[in-house]
Amino acid sequence: MTESRRRPTPEEMTARCQGFLPGRFGVVVTVIEPGRLTSTMTVLPEFLAPNGFLHAAAVVALADTACGIACLCELPAGATSFTTVELKTNFLGTVRTGVLTCIAEARHLGRTTQLWDAEVLAQDSGRRLALFRCTQMILWPAPGGGGSAG
After folding, report:
1. What residue numbers bound the domain in which 118 lies?
2. Within-domain flag for 1
């Protein structure tokens, strides 16, 4: 994102999640800085797997949301959106209760792709639960300004 554009606030980006999966999961954006975003999510009983531990998909939802919102905040001028083209998660631990913190950081901010890393932590202990990496493809208006792909 060029410095001439206004950076959205954490409250605006949290509100944008309402009515979508991140809103259902209770993702809250807490900090937006150039190339970095922090968010939180409270572990609810319905986020647990049948084995009683936090479901991997809940962790991925938090990390992918953090990276996606961060990508939106860093879109090059003229880009319209983005889509995730690859993601990977390494799980290092789990929890059954508490609040998760996710810190997303840019590794590459190009005109066609962005690469983001995220770390998911147990907020109370600071223990690292997962490392996440994704590649985002930057979307641009169609040449000629109209039509749809497909």
Report:
1. 10-145
2. no
